[in-house]
Amino acid sequence: MTNDDRIGPPLLGSERETLRAFLDYQRETLAMKCAGLGDEELRERSMPPSTLSLLALVRHLAEVERAWFRRVFEDTEAPMVWSEKTFDFQAAYDASTSTRAEAFAAWEAEVETSRRIEREAASLDLVGRQPRWEKEVSLRMVMVHVLLEYGRHNGHADLLREGVDGTVGA
């Protein structure tokens, strides 16, 4: 990757500033891994029988953002983005008819909702209810969990991007 415009986290930031910056850095990493690719390239699957593709990851992470921010802190009944089933994260992986525009619009909208929820929270101690677990969780825990989701899936994105066009790095 030659263009790396990601903003690194602060070296001496507060807990909240650091979590926010690391999460945004991982979000920017996903977008960077998809940069410059068309719909067909973004839909290229890793290997049969897997449906994993870069576009599938974008769709999945839109679901993750919704499930962990919107559904925990605003609307436990908010539907999944791509599935009629309540906790079906697998539907997002079928990106066979999806487009960059559709997937990124959904992902960007969910990211903005997540950022707004975090910004409006008085502290990381804000408590919400995770409907899947039927347990209370803090904003701190949610931010760390979503950060870990991005870290794991950006590792997949590294391999997928290399498979699409040989691009490696960052």
TrEMBL record:
<protein>
    <submittedName>
        <fullName>DinB family protein</fullName>
    </submittedName>
</protein>
<dbReference type="Pfam" id="PF04978">
    <property type="entry name" value="MST"/>
</dbReference>
<dbReference type="InterPro" id="IPR034660">
    <property type="entry name" value="DinB/YfiT-like"/>
</dbReference>
<dbReference type="InterPro" id="IPR007061">
    <property type="entry name" value="MST-like"/>
</dbReference>
